[in-house]
Amino acid sequence: MQNIPSGVARLTHFGLIRAQGDDAAKFLHNQLTHDFSLLGLSEARLAGFCNPKGRMQASFIGFKLSATDIVLVCSQDLLAATLKRLKMFVLRAKVVLSDASDAFAVYGLTGSAVQDAIAGRATSPSSVWAKATFDDVTMISLYPADGVARALWIAPAGAAAPSGATLSTELWAWGEVRSGIATVTQAIFEAFVPQMLNYESVGGVNFKKGCYPGQEVVARSQFRGTLKRRAYLAHADQPIQAGDEVFAPGDDQPCGTVAQAAAAPAGGCDAIVSMQISAFEAGGVRLRAPNGPELALSAPPYPLLADI
Questions:
Q1: Residue 260 belongs to a domain
Q2: How many domains are contained in the chain?
């Protein structure tokens, strides 16, 4: 397996939503799957935005610029619709929501570029979802890809880019897949409850917080042992796209759906596939049809939280 090289990629497929006001944290706390009321200035949050049936309409990496100023990084193709939906719930809350994509630039850092970015700094993100701020820059540590460090670098528009070799967006996308952390895009809008993408195992769901849209469904899936799908890694020699269905041999009903995919530098495609646990354990899963190309499956690159 080839590892993702070190470098810096400009990530224009991400957009940013900004929540500003005295009730910004409380408002997001009541809408998303993670706790934003207790979000500190030295940490970030992975979180989902669900419909009443618990299906994810968007996913975010959220962080505070200040106690009353929160930024949510999400897929650009869902930003406008997501912002519109969030605004429907504002009512009397003291919060202003806006599209801040033009106000910031987002970069992805890998390998030695991560270490170079924090060298000599007084603070640095020391663990996954940790956040550091320096020179108006926010840096967030992400899950690694095959052991290679990764981070987001969010800076004001027009600021100097972080130093490092140029990394293609294709290689960044491949690293995203290899990390096992899927981002919700239009192709999988309302396709999964958070646990189907392993969000409860990677810091994306807080089961102790109060209610949010879909909370009862998400909690029931966890506490009643009804979870039957998980996200796994897959490889095929054929092109793979988010939204593609996968099938167990001889069964014309799909057993799963591709959540995210990217071309692998050594050939073929790698993907994150949400599928029935039983189908993963049986193996022989096929892409797009019961007699389609066979997928090489592997477990996610992090431990899964046991059903409660």
A1: yes
A2: 2
Q: Hey, how many other C-beta atoms are within 10 angstroms of the C-beta on 174?
A: 22
pLDDT by residue (tens digit) across 183-206?
999 999 999 999 999 999 999 999
> What DSSP state is assigned to residue 133?
E
Q: What is the pLDDT of residues 164-182, one digit of tens each?
A: 999 999 999 999 999 999 9
- Parallel, antiparallel, or unpaired for β 150-156 and 137-141? antiparallel
- Bridge partners for 10 per DSSP: 107
Contact (Cβ atoms closer than 8 angstroms) between residue 269 and residue 261: yes
Write out the DSSP string of 241-304.
-TT-EEE-TT-SSEEEEEEEEEE-TTSSEEEEEEEEHHHHHH---EESSTTSPBPEEE--SSPP
d(CA 238, CA 236): 5
Q: List helix spans (H) across 12-149.
A: 24-29, 76-87, 112-118
Range of the domain at 84: 7-179
Neighbours of 168 (CB within 10 A): 12
